[in-house]
User: What shape does this take?
Amino acid sequence: MRYDVICIGSATLDVFIHTDKKFVKKGKYNFPIGEKLLIKNLDMNTGGGGTNTAVCFSRLGLKTAFAGKVGCCDNSNFILRQLKSEKIDTSMTIISKKGKAGYSVIMDAQKTDRTIFAYKGLNEEFKFSQLNKRKLKKTKWIYLTAFTKQSFKESEKVALFAKRNNIKLAFNPSSYLAKKGFKFLKKIIECTTCLVLNKEEASMIVKGKNCKELAKKLYEKGPELVVVTNAHKGAWVFDGENYYHSGQRKIKIIETTGAGDAFASTFVGALIKGKNPKEAVKIAQKNAESVITHMGAKNKLLSWKKLSRK
Assistant: This one.
């Protein structure tokens, strides 16, 4: 089997706890200690950059595989079942007999007022040596999301493998990695075909006054395409010659978890399906808007058919 894209990144079980806005004061949560507090609702779903992007690619109609690390626990089984239900190949997923899958508790009071308690678990024990290299070669793209600690060094090996085997690489670093600067990310960025990140992350890697300048300076570091997003102000793309911009419409934001993953993977997915950067950024913006107007990182990821509608 040949894949359109293989997603390498974290997998978690996400638990959304819906609290009351009265607990948020001046940007901080304020809970009384020693009391039992009722919550409005509770939702569970898979999360993590690796699974979020894999689901997005699959819904775009692309042949997709996930190659992260999970365990043998109930949470890991839940993650694998959900991926399979989305028609994602999990044969490359590393399954450890020891350890637990990643787990996140997301406290969401209203709109962007949320706090995430993240347990990385086996996501910090990813090893490139455990991947099936024969299958890894059978893909057009590798989509690499942020790993931390020892797993980051392993992701550098993924990037070098992609370059040596003429596989296109998309990279979406988090603020965890971006704050360490360009020298820390150099090996991956120099192997990257498409780099997607937000303005805050871009500013941690290079210096620039605005998104256009940041995109240009990042492009000079090696990627063929750079995309810099800036929340409600939209996103800028630079391909070495031209800039393309897509603004966000005025919409009611319900919850923002997964919006960045939705945008980045949809942009790359549109490229895989033959769209140019100008078209891809507008399609990506549309999918990100769908995500932030609903609860959860994956619930309202759109199909290619719906995204293609004018």
Summary: The first strand starts at residue 3 and ends at 8. The CA atoms of residues 137 and 165 lie 7 Å apart. The chain has one domain: 3-31+38-307. The chain has a mean pLDDT of 90.
